[in-house]
């Protein structure tokens, strides 16, 4: 199979995956949704679980973080970037729900999709090829962390949550998100570390980030179409 055909096949596979993910993605639904709307007390363990589950199934968040980690080989570098991302999304998650910030979930998710495009484009040296200076990587990750936090907040804003125990439950949800994020990132970092030791890494890195770029475009256009059509999320 030629390289071009492999890339086209990969992009079509991503299209099918993300199309199904759009319907079955990381929303809070079913019995979890019933629980969130019916709870009238602090429920730390339950919200820890919901937060971790949301992040582990949050394909858009994980695609962005995969792009962030792609060329980071040192644990200290990973910790610095992940801490900035966590700070950003923690701030807007709490503020979004507690202050009832007006958030359009589809538009926010479209920007989250754009964050995947941005990181893949940066990994592909896109700014350099255009003769542009890329924004400071740490600042970009923090800003996108703020956007990702609004995406998390929009999931909880969809429910009428009781004020009784709300802060405790939000903090537990956020800690759960961090736990899920660390579990997912540990797996991603280990896989990338093994891959980097292979001679094929440099040859395949560009193709991998091209697929990541394609995934970002699919996520962005999917969410924009939901917004334009006024489809329920």
Textual characterization of the structure:
The chain is an all-alpha fold and 233 residues long. It has helices at residues 3-24, 30-38, 44-56, 59-69, 75-98, 105-123, 126-129, 137-157, 166-196, 201-229. Helix 5 (75-98) runs parallel beside helix 8 (137-157), helix 6 runs antiparallel to helix 8 (137-157) and helix 6 packs antiparallel against helix 10 (201-229).
Task: Chart the SSEs and their pairings.
Blueprint: H1 3-24, H2 30-38, H3 44-56, H4 59-69, H5 75-98, H6 105-123, H7 126-129, H8 137-157, H9 166-196, H10 201-229
Helix pairs in contact: 1-10, 3-9, 4-6, 4-9, 5-8, 5-9, 6-8, 6-10
* Backbone structural class: mainly alpha
Percentage of residues in strands: under 5%
Q: DSSP helix count?
A: 10
Contiguous low-pLDDT stretches (5 residues minimum) are: 7-25
Total of domains: 1
Number of DSSP E strands:
0
**Helical content (DSSP H or I, runs of 4+):** over 70%
- Major β-sheet, in short? none
If you compute it from the alpha carbons, what radius of gyration comes out, rounded to the nearest whole angstrom? 18 Å
Mean pLDDT: 83
